[in-house]
Amino acid sequence: MHPVVLVRDSVVLVRDSGVPLAVQLADALRAAAVGGVLRTGDRLPSTRALATELGLSRTVTAAAYDQLLAEGWVSGRRGSGTYVTAAPVASRAVAAPSARVVAPSTEPSVVDLRAGSPCTDILDVAAWRRAWRAGGDAPPDGGPCPAGLPAFRVAVVEHLLRHRGLPADPAEVLATGGSTSAISELARVLPVGARVAVEEPGYPRAVWALAAAGGSVVRAAVDDAGLRVDALPPGLAAVYCTPAHQYPLGARLAADRRIALVERARAEDWLVIEDDYDGELRYDVAPLPLLAALGPDVVAHLGTASKMLAPTLGVGWLVAPPAVRQAVLANRELTGARPAPAGQRVFAALAAHGDLARHLRRLRRELAWRRAVVTAALDAAGVEIRGDEAGAHVVAVLADLGAERAAIAAAAESGVVLDGLARHHGGSPATAGIVLGYAGPSRADLGRALPVVTASLDVAHR
């Protein structure tokens, strides 16, 4: 058995730097591997032993190891420990003697904290490659499959039952190109000029997709309990909403409103478009039942792989009433449109080997940790926060639109890109604030950006 190496001399932590200790620890161990202080095959201390050695909590050391494991710097062996696997290939290539040495840029890189990007840092590279290889091993398609590949639809059914509590049959599932693509397809099977209610503030791409297909968009009020069902006007053809985690304010649609929405949809012949864009990502309590489970006869349920994996796959799913599915399929037959088979194969391979479920467990832990870091920084700065313990963004509340613009401008001067609530309104903004995404950047970039964010919000409050 390899002896455990001592890493204390390789780690310097600055506890009041504003950069999370887990990020500093991962950076120090990574630098030790690049510099040769830690070598391939070296066995690292356990998370508990390292925490004791450095005077940290085990949560910090475990988070640092998780990050290095996701990046490929270390590997875990069951019952044996954590071992250095050397720098990833790309890193070694840069350091090769024959490579031209390029001076590092003195300009800080831009950190994009707009919501919507997935956390690709924790993807298991080996599992990702294995799934793509499995997808490539499949024979070429002999013809179009408008409903989606059977293996993909089976994988979606298992995913929905396990992670969203929605029982379905593969025959009830259609593959899509993602949520926005599915919204466009649903809009095209509605009557021309149909009135569709959309949450305000809400998802701008949903508005654009509906309008581009000839729909007439009606703005629907939301509050801290989600969509105001009582405020929806009569004469609608459809209602688009994000009940699991209202985008962008982050509320969960209350149980009584879910029931009221389904009852009104049945009584007034609405189609409810339920966009479950990040419903798998909840950290406090189990999510409320999906609208599709309450009203399968009036609800079209949308899901996507983009937020939990990567947009690279370009796939999602639609579970809808039979008449809606048939109309979408008929439109696909006429236009020749179909979702990408390659992404479906990769998703199915990830699910078949259990890699998708393992990834989701890691993702929930990672995003819960990031949310805690972000909210702690905002709390310390005295910033009001909106949003449930779910998803990959929070809203930092500001007093007015002028403060919102000031915060965005101040952050941009320091290389941090922020998104305001203003662009999520169709009319005059009723609320102001920053929609702060924390999934996309690396832990190091997030730690570097948070002091900029809090300083920019302070400027906005003046």
Structure, described:
A hairpin with a 2-residue loop joins strand 7 (216-223) and strand 8 (226-227). The chain is globular. The strands form four sheets. Strands 5-12-11-10-9-6-7-8 form an eight-stranded mixed sheet. Strands 13-14-17-16 form a four-stranded antiparallel sheet, with helices on one face. Strands 1-3-2 form a three-stranded antiparallel sheet. The protein folds into three domains: 8-95, Winged helix-like DNA-binding domain superfamily/Winged helix DNA-binding domain (Arc Repressor Mutant, subunit A, Orthogonal Bundle), CATH 1.10.10; 111-122 and 361-461, Aspartate Aminotransferase, domain 1 (Alpha-Beta Complex), CATH 3.90.1150; 125-356, 3-Layer(aba) Sandwich (Aspartate Aminotransferase, domain 2). Residues 87-107 have low confidence and may be disordered. Helices cover 42% and strands 15% of the residues. It has 15 helices and 17 strands. With 462 residues, it is α/β, with parallel strands linked by helices. 45% of the residues are buried.
Ordered list of secondary-structure elements with their pairings:
Layout: H1 21-34, E1 43-44, H2 47-54, H3 58-71, E2 74-77, E3 81-84, H4 89-95, E4 111-112, H5 125-137, H6 150-164, E5 173-176, H7 179-188, E6 195-200, H8 204-212, E7 216-223, E8 226-227, E9 238-241, H9 255-268, E10 271-275, H10 291-294, E11 299-304, E12 316-319, H11 322-335, H12 341-352, H13 355-380, E13 385-386, E14 393-398, H14 401-413, E15 416-417, E16 419-420, E17 432-437, H15 443-461
Parallel strand pairs: 4-15, 6-7, 6-9, 9-10, 10-11
Antiparallel strand pairs: 1-3, 2-3, 5-12, 7-8, 11-12, 13-14, 14-17, 16-17
Helix pairs in contact: 1-3, 2-3, 5-12, 6-12, 7-8, 13-15, 14-15
